[in-house]
Amino acid sequence: MVNRGEVIFAFGMALLCFLSVGGGLATGIGLGRLLERLTAVEKSGPDLGRGKSLFTQNCGTCHGPEARGVPHLGKDLVTSKFTMDLSDDQLLAFVRKGRAANDSSNTTGIPMPPSGGNPSLSDDQLREIIAYLRTLKN
Ligand code: HEC
User: Fold this and answer.
1) Atom of ligand 1 nearest to the CA of 91
2) For a substitution probing ligand 1, which of 50, 63, 92 has the most ligand atoms within 8 Å of its CB?
3) What is the CA radius of gyration of the chain?
4) 94 shares a domain with 72
5) Would you say the CB of residue 58 lies under 6 angstroms from ligand 1?
6) Is there a single domain that holds both residue 60 and residue 128?
7) Under 8 Å CB-to-CB from 132, ≥6 apart: which residues?
């Protein structure tokens, strides 16, 4: 004989299982959506946080942590008309090439090393640095 208490208990357990599986699924779907959004943001443009740290590591020594320049090392890039007037592609080409001390366009007599002295920087990494520079306003 199955008594009423047991039936209610079994029913309760079944309901609990159903709810926890359903809840788990719903959470899973929610997390999936969230991850999708996060990666979509990353895909939509260069990563500025990474651009900033790449700048600090590769350009900051000469150009200063906020790109405000360091006397006798590197120029202020925030107020640089040269930088503002170039497209991202042109700026990328400039940074790759650098500007030798004896270059007629050199303004300080101090050389800007090709790729900031780090030829292992990829085009994508330089683009992230450039995107970061574009966010700096006077
Ligand atoms: C070893 C020091 C040094 C490093 C490292 C360096 N630069 Fe420079 N950079 C210079 C100097 C010096 C000049 C100015 C040259 C001149 O007098 O015309 C310059 C000029 C520039 C200019 C042109 C500014 C203007 O108004 O003419 C840009 C843009 C620039 N650097 C970007 C970068 C970026 C981006 C990095 C990192 C990937 C970097 N530099 C790393 C020394 C450096």
Assistant:
1) 29
2) 63
3) 28
4) yes
5) yes
6) yes
7) 46, 48, 51, 52, 54, 55
Q: What is the extent of the structural domain holding 7?
A: 1-44
Q: Which of 57, 62, 104 to mutate to test the pocket of ligand 1 (most atoms within 8 A of CB)?
A: 62
Average pLDDT, consecutive stretches of 10 residues, N- to C-terminus, the chain (138 residues): 69 66 61 60 73 97 96 96 97 98 97 98 97 91
Instruction: Let me know whether 29 and 71 are in one domain.
Output: no
What is the CATH classification number for the domain harbouring 77?
1.10.760.10
The verdict on 58 and 124 lying in the same domain is: yes
Give yes or no: residues 81 and 121 share one domain. yes
Ligand 1 proximity of 86 Cβ (cutoff 6 Å): no
Index of the ligand 1 atom closest to the CA of residue 105: 18
The one-letter amino acid at 126: L
Residues 61, 26 share a domain: no
Q: What are phi and psi of 36, to 5 degrees?
A: -60, -45
Both structure tokens of 40 = 């979509």
What pLDDT shows up at residue 3? 73
Number of compact structural domains in the chain:
2
